[in-house]
Every structure is written in C-alpha cells, then in structure tokens.
Amino acid sequence: MCRPGMRHFWTNDKKPYLCKRLTGTEVEDSTLIARVKAGDRGAFNELYGIYWASLVNYAGLFVGDDGAEDVVQDVFVRVWLRRDNLRDDGTLQGYLLRSVYHASLNALKKGANATAYRSWVAQQIEQSCYAHYDPDDSEVIRKLYSQEIAGQIDAAVESLSPKCREVFRMSHIEGLSNREISERLGITLSTVENHIYNALKQLRQKLSHYKMLILLTMYILGR
C-alpha cells in the first residue's frame, strides 16, 4: 500500500503498482470527492462554486453563452445523482471537463434535430474539430500549440485589465484553484470567478476568428 499523501497507479502490465505523491490540488480534490460521495451537500456546493465559472466558459465554446449554463447545470445534477460513481483516483477538474465536453456535444446534436439555427462556430466545431477540445487530448493539444500562436494569445492576455490579467494567469497558467487565488489576493471567491469569466469573454472576442478560438482553448488546456 502507498503511504498517506500518495496514490497508487497500475503499470501497463497490471502488475505491481507505482506510488505517486499527490499534488495539493489532487489532495484537495480527493477530500472533496470523499465528502460528496458521503452525501455532504456543503461539499457539493463548494465543488459547484470552485468549478462553475470555468466550466460555463468551456461549455460556451461549443454551445454559446446562451446554452452554456444549462449544460453545466445538467452536469452538476448528474454528478450529484451519481455521486457514488465518482472515482477517488482522478482530479475533479479532468472529470468535470470530460463531462461538460460530452454534454456539450449531446446538446449540439439535439439542437441539430430540434432547430435549424446553429452558430457558424458550432457548425465548424461539430464538423471537424471536436477532438481539439477533448480534455483527454492534451498531448495532441500541446503538440499543435506553436510559439507564433502563443505570442498572439499572450498579446491578447496582456491587453486585459491588470487585475483581470493577474487572476487569469494564476488560474490558467499557474494552475491555482479559485479558492487559492481568493486567499492569495484577499478577494472573494465570486470576484475571482467574475474576473475569470470576463477574461475569457474578452479573449474570445479578441480572438474571435475560428482558428484562433480553437487555439485559445489549446493554450488554456495545454499550459
């Protein structure tokens, strides 16, 4: 067995497992998962507060701002109803991103059957670029990410207001949780979420060209 603070990972041949020390985020996620699985509504509300804003922005890349909140709301409902199925050996962020990814695709498919209207970006994503948004495809994303594109996105990030830029970098580049950012900067959790929401909204507008929008997502998921 692994020592406290470590997690076991099976090797490819399913023989002796390897022990890996958990990061701070993984330890926090593991604790939160355990509490949610135990039916702790407070823990679920905490999970909701931590990930809501970033997941809404992620879903918005597929279904647009109008449908993003509905997609994420449905995902959280399913998480609670199926909380017994949550795994202790994965990060919540990865699990939630995959859930939102698939829920967004399902929403687009249902929309295609129910209504004639689809945004140009949504059509293009459905036709050729679903894989680029798949959170499990991070290796591909990193390979496709180029220095030239990085420079353009970095310039767009630099154009954000100072506080908005600082929060965005801490969240998407340093990988800090919303709660960690809140504590470090001495601001409320909702203020952090608003800064992240506004940053991503402005970046989507500045990089509104379809290919640049895809690469913005690569930039965020691949850092």
Automatic annotation (TrEMBL):
SMART domains: HTH_LUXR
The UniProt record lists the keyword Signal: no
Signal peptide: none
Superkingdom: Bacteria
InterPro entries: RNA_pol_sigma-70-like, RNA_pol_sigma-70_dom, RNA_pol_sigma70_bacteroid, RNA_pol_sigma70_r2, RNA_pol_sigma70_r4_t2, RNA_pol_sigma_r2, RNA_pol_sigma_r3/r4-like, Tscrpt_reg_LuxR_C
Keywords: Sigma factor, Transcription, Transcription regulation
All copies of domain HTH luxR-type, residue ranges: 157-217
Pfam hit, one: Sigma70_r2
Segments passing through the bilayer: none
Gene Ontology biological process: DNA-templated transcription initiation
Similarity comment: Belongs to the sigma-70 factor family. ECF subfamily.
UniProt-recorded name of the protein: RNA polymerase sigma-70 factor, Bacteroides expansion family 1
Organism whose genome encodes this protein: Alistipes finegoldii (strain DSM 17242 / JCM 16770 / CCUG 46020 / CIP 107999 / KCTC 15236 / AHN 2437)
